[in-house]
Design a protein that fits this description.
The complex is a heterodimer of chains A (281) and B (160). Chain A has 281 residues and is α+β, with helices and mostly antiparallel strands. In chain A, 31% of the residues lie in helices and 37% in strands. Chain A contains 8 helices and 10 strands. Chain A has helices spanning 2-19, 25-28, 46-60, 127-134, 143-158, 165-168, 185-199, 265-271; strands spanning 29-35, 65-74, 77-87, 102-114, 117-125, 169-175, 200-213, 216-227, 240-252, 255-263. In chain A, 31% of the residues are buried. Chain B is elongated, with a radius of gyration of 18 Å. Chain B has one domain (26-157): Nuclear Transport Factor 2, Chain: A. With 160 residues, chain B is an alpha+beta fold. The relative contact order of chain B is 0.15. Classes of the chains: A alpha+beta (281), B alpha+beta (160). Chain A binds chain B through residues 2, 37, 69-70, 72-75, 77-79, 81, 106-110, 122, 124-128, 131-132, and chain B through 26, 61, 64, 93, 95-98, 100-102, 104, 128-130, 132, 144, 146-150.
Chain lengths: 281, 160
Amino acid sequence: MSDMAKNLYRNFVEEVINKANYDLIPEIFSEDYLDHNAPPGAPVGGFDAIRAVPIMFRGAFPDVHFVIEDMINQDGWVATRVTGKATHLGKPFMGIEPTGLRVSWSSMGFFRVANGRIVEHHGQPDLGALHNQLSRNIEPGSIDHNRFIVSRYVYATNIGELDRFDEYVDPNFVDHNALPGQRPGVEGLKDAYRMFSAAFSDLWYTFEDLIAEGDKVVGRGVIQGKHTGDFMGIPASNKLVRWTGTRIFRVVNQKVTDGWIDLDMFGLMMQLGAIPMPGQA
Amino acid sequence: MGNHIERSIMAEKIWAGEIIPGSDDSEKNISLVKLFFEGVWNKGNLSQVDEFMAQDFVDYNRPPGAAEGREGYKAGVTMIRTAFPDFNFTLDQILAEGDHVAIRLTGSGTHKGDFMGISPTGKQVALGSMTFLRIKNGKISERWGISDIPRVIQQLQAKG
């Protein structure tokens, strides 16, 4: 009995939180699941309530990873203590736009297990510690600050606020992978974004890694969007497409001065049906 | 590090049959925790901190700037009880296994003193909290805890 409760919780952390394997939720939780401390606005019951929390964390912290520190089991309940480690590269969290900062916080919970499934939960994440870390001062010119600049710049593109580029991108920005005919500087960069966002709605670039050294910042990520407009002569297919992109940025005096981008155009064109999938005639 | 060595000694004792696993002090530990919260937090009897907590007590979630060990813990109790003189913790749930105890608790009190720079509002607040304790030789030796302080600040700053 005691091992079963702990194993259910371990599966939740390892599979659902750390690997975003949401299909496993019905094997771990009861459909009558009740969350006594659901975040404001989130569902309080059922599978939706379970999905809501890891989805919210993963949206803000795409690399979120929980480590189980302690589990205490008694009478069908298991009390858990975990440490979350993550990088703030995605959506705003607690009202703070992405900072590029690595954070670590504790979280505790009490879970009740009945008939082989988790049925209810009380939770206490250390949101105060998390908020303090995300709102700390970042020294201008530091490597952390370079990551901050890049995270904010890419976030501005995600929400389509290209006028905010001026805050983060140097007017004489050099695009080392400019499109044919792209205008020089930051205005050309805006044109390139407009071309993609005209073809793909809800276009979103998610960093899965962001590494900084010297004046360079290197990002590995995934772009997602819905093909609702003409793209390089391919008419809208309404397909949801996902392709990878690796980017390098140079940051000088708190502005992005140079950019290199390597997009998986081949993968994108296969998804759009412009290039046949291997093995298909 | 010390923890590590202690645990391997424990494992050896179990192997040698000197300790029977499962015959832990859960019930005793639960009673101790109840007496501790009632005396120290609800009655404000700070001298009981030294009575219930080990001399080398470690708090892994001290508030920023707080002293280490028992003195830091006492300062935390004083800070809360100065801001909320009628502060009271209700222990909603206690689980114990081995030498660890997990507690889910709700604090309540009236805001009559300065709290984190907020002048007294006279408001009644609720504080959600969870604590994990390790109990060694009948004394609380380690603590991990999270309290929803941001929620308390929200309650104090709310209009009306």
